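User: Hi! I'm working on a homework problem where we have to compare a predicted structure to a textbook description. Could you give me the structure for the chain below?
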Amino acid sequence: MSVLALQRLRSRCFLLAPFASVLLLACSQEIASESRDEVLHSKVLSAGKARTPVSATSLVDSPDTLLCVLRPYEPFVQPKGSPAAIEINRQLTQAAYVADDSHWALVAYTPGKPIRVAVVNQGDLRVARIQEDLCEPAALLRLAYDSDGQVTFVRDQAK
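Assistant: Happy to help. Predicted structure tokens:
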């Protein structure tokens, strides 16, 4: 390859580099920014790192807010047949939620309002592999830990 051909190739690579970084950034986003809830995310991380079981009502504004756990690779809430799940899943699709092994999510939903999603990196706070499919009012849930110290959301037996 001639020196001139190498210079042309190098200049083309430099011109394309900014576009590649934008594309990489766009592909790495798990959900649209308008659905992301940094306050909920912060509360989940704080409660999880404290390693003390807490009521899920401490994470949201209302005890009636539905909280749904999306495990890694789980793009939709379960069970899919309920009216709330249908609406949540519609909004997750609209917000372009991407599920993979690097994160899990907690979806907060109040009927008639947009979903709020806390996307939690597994490296920051691991969700238990045994996490069951849950989509329940916050008043009925608590954040707890399994025997490996991984966070799990469970139905609050005291309620």
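For your comparison, note the following. The chain has two domains: 1-30, 31-155. Residues 31-155 form one domain. Good luck with the assignment!
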